[in-house]
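Hi D.,

Good news: the full-assembly prediction came through. Inputs first.
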Amino acid sequence: QKEVEQDPGPLSVPEGAIVSLNCTYSNSAFQYFMWYRQYSRKGPELLMYTYSSGNKEDGRFTAQVDKSSKYISLFIRDSQPSDSATYLCAMSGDGNKLVFGAGTILRVKS
Amino acid sequence: KAGVTQTPRYLIKTRGQQVTLSCSPISGHRSVSWYQQTPGQGLQFLFEYFSETQRNKGNFPGRFSGRQFSNSRSEMNVSTLELGDSALYLCASRSGGSDTQYFGPGTRLTVL
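Then the structure:
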């Protein structure tokens, strides 16, 4: 079993929809949780970072962490075609070595 | 501030050869980590360097090695290349007082 599980998709939604992306993990030592966005042939771009349970909002993005359930989510409101990319969850116990999910391919159709 | 830069962006090598990849971190960042990304295994941690010292290492064979220079620039070397080493190699930098890592565009290595 992988330490971090993420549905690879693809997830296809119409423009303007609310998108929900999720990851589960098994390692209780994980304290830092990140979401990265990766466009084709580019490096991952940091979207959200949190280290506590609860919600964190930044513009159209909301990151949610539930440590008791070992479950994290990323919500994208008013999705745009430019949001089409691969979304990677990543987590760490010490802030150094990141463990990534497989990535979810998101397609937003106009 | 300029982002993380990696050179070269693309490389084609043959089995048995060796390769060296370079990474320049964001100015002021002293930590550099390397990751391998493949369609089958996703993103996997290779190693991390901080102030010229390797602090953490992933589960890769000894053919994969790295080093960091006094200006924080880092190089990664892969010896005796195998077909399975074909991947996107990503470098990420982090400032000493932060937990967030910023990635470069990667070097795409193809082994024939």
